């Protein structure tokens, strides 16, 4: 069999090394057929919940809930946590979509917008007085810009009357978020957890739950029909879900998170930083390429976006011949950028291999 392709794409992405082994375990345990009301399922949910709490340092009072995708959670957050006004930091396609979801749901959505490649620091952000929720994107996958954890934390501290939401879809578990400050955060599994798409993970605190209950019970407003926060919350406390969930993926996520805990999140974060440095150093010194994000501190640790002098499609095709799959730029940047994932599943050897091959082009 020909050598398999290696994916350096920002999601779906390279699969976790032991994915096949754990998938086989799921098949052997007939997880596609067990009842989601069974004790066996509750144990799977509980295990995944516990491993994620350890990995991301999530307090006991927060709920960890499962959805179909991360973008579904954009809608849930707006429906459950915003009555009238939300505020969005927009600097690329994903943060913009979160903003557009709020507007589509009839909320007065405010935004502070920056061009692709730029990011936000605490001092420059002015939050509209009546915004109930601040929506941040920790890792803007379209442009390779991160928002530093410290800036997110300061933003909450100085706006403690508002909820803060963090899209960490393409960076979790790398950001070291303080869940005593962050009210809600979310991710999906096809990015840095190295699993097939089909599961969203929603973390929320009691302030979010109170807000949803207030909108529904005191104000008599709709918080949606499908998977409302109070419903997901109360079910999650029993390691249950309102509807039939993706049992297999919940199982796989628990296995991957358990392995990550065995390695230790500090070691994983350090290794991610080390690999990111390799990538950025390489392109800073390579003719024909430049790192798209100017401010070093705002460069993503998990998705590197590189400007290319030649059309990126040419570079991507040369690499594809070698079974190395690299992503194009996003939207308008399709032909002038490449995007390289630096997820947990992208091993040091894989990153070195890619850079060595690119050096030959
Ligand atoms: C991929 C991505 C999403 C959407 O995730 P889905 O699982 O496809 O819904 C949202 N935000 C960011 C930053 C992403 O990278």
Structure description:
The protein is built from eleven helices and 14 strands. The protein is of the alpha/beta class. It folds into two domains: 6-15 and 264-358, Aspartate Aminotransferase, domain 1; 19-262, Type I PLP-dependent aspartate aminotransferase-like (Major domain) (Aspartate Aminotransferase, domain 2). The two termini are 26 Å apart. 48% of the residues are buried. It binds pyridoxal-5'-phosphate. Residues 11, 69-71, 94, 137, 139, 141, 167, 169-170, 188, 200 line the site of pyridoxal-5'-phosphate. Pyridoxal-5'-phosphate binds next to helix 3.
CATH class of the largest domain: Alpha Beta
Shape: globular
The appropriate CATH architecture of the largest domain is 3-Layer(aba) Sandwich
Question: Could you say which small molecules are bound to this protein?
Answer: pyridoxal-5'-phosphate
Give the SSE string: EHHEHEHEEEEHEEEHHHHEEHEEH
Q: Give the helix proportion (percent range).
A: 25-40%
Largest sheet: 7 strands, mixed
Q: Assembly type of the shown chains?
A: single chain
Count the DSSP helices. 11
CATH topology of the largest domain: Aspartate Aminotransferase, domain 2
What's the structural domain tally?
2
The whole-angstrom Rg is 20 Å
Write down the overall mean pLDDT: 97
In total, how many beta strands? 14
Write the CATH homologous superfamily of the largest domain: Type I PLP-dependent aspartate aminotransferase-like (Major domain)
Low-confidence stretches: none
Strand portion: 15-25%
Strand order of the largest sheet: 2-10-9-8-5-3-4
């Amino acid at each position: 069999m020909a050598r398999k392709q290696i994916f350096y794409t920002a999601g779906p992405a390279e699969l976790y090394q032991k994915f096949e082994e754990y998938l086989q375990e799921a098949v052997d345990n007939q997880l596609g057929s067990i009842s989601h009301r069974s004790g066996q399922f509750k144990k799977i949910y509980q295990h995944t919940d516990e491993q994620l709490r350890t990995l991301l340092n999530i307090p006991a009072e927060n709920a960890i809930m499962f959805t179909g995708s991360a973008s579904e959670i954009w809608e849930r957050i707006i429906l459950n946590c915003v009555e009238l006004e939300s505020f969005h930091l927009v600097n690329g396609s994903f943060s913009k979509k979160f903003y557009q979801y709020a507007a589509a749901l009839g909320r007065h959505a405010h935004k502070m917008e920056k061009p692709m490649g730029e990011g936000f620091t605490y001092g420059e952000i002015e939050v509209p007085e009546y915004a109930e929720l601040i929506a941040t994107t920790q890792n803007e996958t379209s442009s390779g810009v991160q928002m530093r954890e410290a800036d997110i934390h300061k933003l909450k501290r100085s706006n403690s009357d508002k909820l803060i939401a963090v899209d960490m879809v393409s960076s979790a578990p790398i950001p070291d978020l303080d869940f005593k400050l962050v009210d809600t955060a979310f991710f999906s599994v096809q990015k840095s957890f190295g699993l097939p798409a089909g599961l969203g993970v929603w973390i929320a605190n009691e302030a979010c739950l109170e807000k949803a209950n207030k909108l529904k019970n005191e104000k008599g407003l709709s918080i949606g029909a499908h998977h409302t926060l109070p419903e997901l919350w109360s079910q999650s406390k029993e390691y249950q879900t309102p509807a039939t969930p993706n049992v297999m993926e919940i199982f796989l996520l628990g296995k991957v998170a358990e392995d990550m805990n065995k390695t230790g999140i500090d070691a994983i974060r350090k290794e991610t930083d080390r690999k990111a440095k390799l990538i950025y150093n390489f392109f800073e010194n390579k003719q024909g390429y430049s790192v798209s994000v100017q401010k070093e501190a705002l460069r993503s640790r998990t998705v590197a976006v590189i400007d290319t002098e030649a059309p990126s499609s040419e570079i991507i095709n040369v690499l594809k011949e070698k079974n190395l799959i690299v992503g194009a730029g996003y939207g308008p940047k399709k032909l002038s950028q490449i995007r390289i994932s630096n997820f947990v599943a992208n091993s040091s050897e894989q990153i070195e291999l890619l850079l060595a091959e690119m050096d030959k082009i």
